[in-house]
Amino acid sequence: MISTILTGAGTRGTLPCMVRAAFGLFLVAASAVACLSPMAASAQERTIRMRELSDLHRACQRAEGEERRTLQIIPFSAGTWRFGPYEASEGFLPIDTRRNLRAFDGHAELFPARMEQVGFIVGPDRAAELRRRAGQLTLRVAFFLGFDEQSGNRCLIRPAAGVTTVRMDVAFLVLVQSGRMVARQDTDRLRAWRDDAEHDAIPGRGPRGAMSAASLGDRAGVAPEPWQQTIAAENRGATARALGVCHAAGVARGAGDGQVVVRIAVDSRSGQVSNPEVELSSIGDDEEAACIAQALSRLQFVPIPALGGRVVLSVPVRLLR
Question: Which residue of 30, 183, 225, 227 has the fewest C-beta atoms within 10 A of its own C-beta?
C-alpha cells in the first residue's frame, strides 16, 4: 500500500514527524539545473502532461478502467496559487489548497484526495526566499486521480457550473521560473508508482538483473531525478551486463531469484560512487550479493553540487533466471 504522506488541509491538523519524513527532498538552486528532467523512459509511457481541460476530461474517463495508475501533470501559473503560513516547528512550507487549486482558467478545481496538506520541506531562510519569488514561479503538480484504494469517483464534471472537480494523490511538486527548476518535493507515492512499473520489466533471457528506483539512505524519499535517469540508462548498459554475470555465477552455485539491496555513497560534486555495501539479500548466495554490490560501484552519476557532498543511496536490484 502507498503510504499516506500528508495530512490536514481543509480542516487544519497536526502533521506528525513520521509523516513528514515520508517526503523525499530534492531542492536545488535554479542555476544548478538547466531544465526540468523528463521521466525515465519506462515511467514516461504512463505520464500525461495536461495542457487543456479536454486533457483532464479524457484522463478522468480513462482512469475508470485502467489497471495501472497514470501520472498526471498540471501547471499552475504564477498568481493562480499561493503558499500557506510557514510552519517553523516542522520546517514545512505548505501550498494553500483551502479553496482548491484552480487550473484552465478556473474550469478545473483540484484538491488533495484525503484533504492532505502539500508543500515543501525547507528551512526558514529557504522558505522566505521562495515566498519572495512566489509571484514569478509556476507550480507544477504531478498526481494520480482518485484514492489509493481505487474507490470513489475520480472526477466530478459539472457542466451547468462549467467546473470539473478532481481529487488528486500528489506524487511530486515542482516550482519553475523561466523553464528552470527552483525546488522539487517528491513523495513516497512516486517511488511506489515507479517500483510497480518496473517490477517485471527485466529485458532479455537467462540470468539477468535490473536496478529499481533508488531511495535516499535515510529512507526520506526517492533519489534526485537525474540520478534515477542514470540508473534507468545503466539497466540497458554495462552495469546490467555485470549484474547478469554475477547472477549467472550465483545460479550455478544454487542461488535463487530475488532481490539484493545495495547501499552506495555518491559524491554529489563529482557523481562518483564509493563504499558499496549489501543491505539486504533474498537470493541465498553471499558471494553473488557481494558481486552485485561491486557492480554498482561502476555507476557514474551527474554531479549535483547543491546536494552538499556525500549522499547515501539504497539501490534495489531485482534478479531473474
Answer: 30
* β 47-49/71-76 pair status: parallel
Instruction: Find out whether 321 and 254 touch, Cβ atoms under 8 Å.
Output: no
Alpha-carbon torsion, ordered 32, 236, 257, 198, to 10 deg = 60
pTM for the predicted model, two decimal places: 0.53
Name the DSSP letter for residue 27: -
d(CA 195, CA 175): 25
Q: Which of 7, 37, 12, 44 is nearest to 22 (CA)?
A: 7
Which of 14, 248, 23 is closest to 119 using CA atoms? 23
Tens of pLDDT, residue by residue over 159-198, are: 667 888 888 888 888 898 887 888 888 887 776 676 655 5
* CA–CA gap between residue 187 and residue 222 (Å, rounded): 8
Taking the C-alpha atoms of residue 2 and residue 191, their distance in angstroms, rounded to an integer, is: 9
Render pLDDT for 259-300 as a digit per residue (tens, 0 to 9). 898 999 999 999 999 999 998 888 889 999 999 999 999 999
Residue 243 in contact with residue 209, Cβ under 8 Å? yes
> φ and ψ at 314, to 5 degrees?
-110, 125
Determine whether 16 is exposed, middle or buried from the number of CB atoms within 10 Å of its CB (0-12, 13-18, 19+): exposed
Can you read off the three cell numbers belonging to residue 252? Answer: 550455478
CA distance 302 to 271: 5
- Contact partners, residue 254, CB within 8 Å, separation at least 6: 284, 285
Contact 311, 266 (CB under 8 A): yes
Is residue 173 within a helix (H) or strand (E), and if so which, with residue range?
strand 163-177
